[in-house]
Amino acid sequence: MATGLLNVAQEIKLDHDNVRELWTRFQSATPQDKPFIANTLIREMAIHSDAEEISVYNDYARLGLPDTAEHNKEEHAEVKKLVYQADSTSVTHDSYDSILGQAVNGFLTHAKEEEDEQHPIMLQHLSPEENDKMARNFLKARKMVPPRPHPAAPQTGGVAQKAAGTFGSVHDKVVEKLEGREYVELKYQHREL
Questions:
Q1: Helix ranges (DSSP H) in 114-158
Q2: Of 148, 157, 131, which Cα lies nearest the Cα of 55?
Q3: What's the pLDDT at 1?
Q4: 96-113 and 34-54 helices cross at what angle (nearest 10)?
Q5: Which residues of the chain have pLDDT under 70?
Q6: How far is Cα 126 from Cα 121, in angstroms, rounded to an integer?
Q7: What is the DSSP letter of 153?
């Protein structure tokens, strides 16, 4: 196992970078490969949003971003609706690329705001040890949340969202197995904890 302290902003940006790279890949993919890339995009956007909500955003108020967590959850709610629409539409639909593109563009617009405006403020308030702890909490949260979008689920970041996420995660994994969903490899990988 690798040693050293993790950086929460870098772990979050890694997810953002995966979505950017997958979207570029999707746009030039063959019709045969598009479903696998789309599945991966949808999974990564769903996991990332819920993981932030039940981990990182809970600390925003004490890190100099008192109203930002609520703002981010509102943006996530809109993105989750778009991701859900993409997940509910057949990749063979004439407008699918546009539908998925709206979800990705919403996600990436929010990601840029986090990277450019929020992360510098957050990092100013974190010791290296606190930063590492937040990063690890985010990575643990990624393993707990559902791999598919659930826009009607609680968005509180608290116990209700964690409980719904745990149930949703198990449910989604069963559904994905039954459907035989396939994914592509991610370019960027988080460190195993």
A1: 119-124, 128-144
A2: 157
A3: 41
A4: 30
A5: 1-3, 150-180
A6: 9
A7: S
Q: Which pLDDT score is estimated for 83?
A: 96
pLDDT at 168: 47
The answer to whether 21 and 188 have CB atoms below 8 angstroms apart is: yes
Predicted confidence at residue 164, as pLDDT, reads: 46
25 membership: H or E segment, kind and range: helix 8-27
Q: How far apart are the first and last CA of the chain?
A: 8
Rounded to whole angstroms, the Cα distance separating 145 from 6 reads: 21
- Tens of pLDDT, residues 31-52: 999 999 999 999 999 999 999 9
Residue type, 5: L
| Sign of the alpha-carbon torsion through 89, 99, 186, 113 | negative
Nearest-angstrom CA–CA distance, 69 and 114: 11
Length of the chain as a residue count: 193
CA atoms within 13 A on the CB side of 83: 29
Cβ-based neighbours of 96, under 8 Å, separated by 6 or more: 38, 86, 89, 90
pLDDT for the residue 174: 47
Residue corresponding to tokens 């991966």: 40
What is the predicted pLDDT for the residue at 148? 87
CATH number of 8-179: 1.20.120
